Every structure is written in structure tokens, then in C-alpha cells.
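Quick illustration, no need to memorize.
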Amino acid sequence: MTTHNRLRELMVRVAHLERRAALVDGLQGRDLSRRDLKGLNFSNANLKGTNLEGADLEGANLMGAILIGADLSNANLTGANLNRANLFRANLSGASLWRANLFRANLKEVNLEGAKLWAVHLKEADLRGASLKGADLLTANLEQANLKGTDFSGVNLVLANLTGATYDDSTILPPSLSRDQLASMTKV
């Protein structure tokens, strides 16, 4: 390949990356409700205040995305990667997050009421002040998660891993919590 062709190929790649960056950065506060966004890459995107209600984000990459105040109610996040995402005060009520990766995600004051969190990976996630009323966390991994002030009223935690998770007097734990699960947690 000649130097001219290599340069042209490099310029095409740079232009593609610039278009992608403009698209992703231009999504803050936009209305993307009920859109098919399956498998798209939103890594490190600024989606602050974006309306994603009912959107299909199955398998989407939202790693490191800023979703502060975003509306993800009734969204399909099955298999989505939300590793290290910032979801502070986001609305995820009724959302489906089956097998989603929320490792070290910021979920402070998030509304997860009625959400389906089956087999979700929440290791080291910050759930301080979050509401999970009526959510289903069947086989979820909450290992070393911060659960201070979290409301687990009516939550299904069957087979959930709570090893090393921290909670305090303001945490509302469900009565269905097993003795072994409670013993594996740390009260602070």
C-alpha cells in the first residue's frame, strides 16, 4: 500500500471517529424513547437527562456512560454493559436488566422499583438511597455493594450474593432475606 493510500485510509478512519463522537456527545437531554438501540456503543457517552423510556438497549455498551437523571423506565437493558456507568438519580423503574453488567456503577438515589434484575452483576455498585421496591434480584451479585439507605421493600433476593455488602440502620431489608445472606453482609 502506498503512503498516499495509507494517509487516505487514516483520514477516513479519523472522520468516522469524529462523526461517531459528535453523534454520541450530541445525545444529552434528547428524546430517544421507544427507539431500537440494540447493541449500540454508547461507551463514555454523555446521556445526562436523556429520555430512554421504553428504549430497547439490549446488549448495548454503556460502559462509563453518564446517565445522570436519565429516564430508563421500562427500557430493555438485557445484557447491557453499564460497567462504571453514572446513573445518579436515574429512573429505571420497570426496566429489564437481565444479566446486565453494573460493576462499580453509581446508582445513588436511583429508582429501580419493579425492575427485573435477574442475574445482574452489581459487584461494588453504589446503591445508597436507591429504591428497589418490588424489584426482582433473583441470583443477582451484590457482592461488596454499598446498600446504605437502600429500600428493598418487597424485593426478591433469592440466591442473591450479598457477601461483603454494607448496610446501615436506614436500609430497609426484606423479611425474606435468609440468615446466611444477612450474616454475609456488614452493618456499618
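The chain has two helices and two strands.
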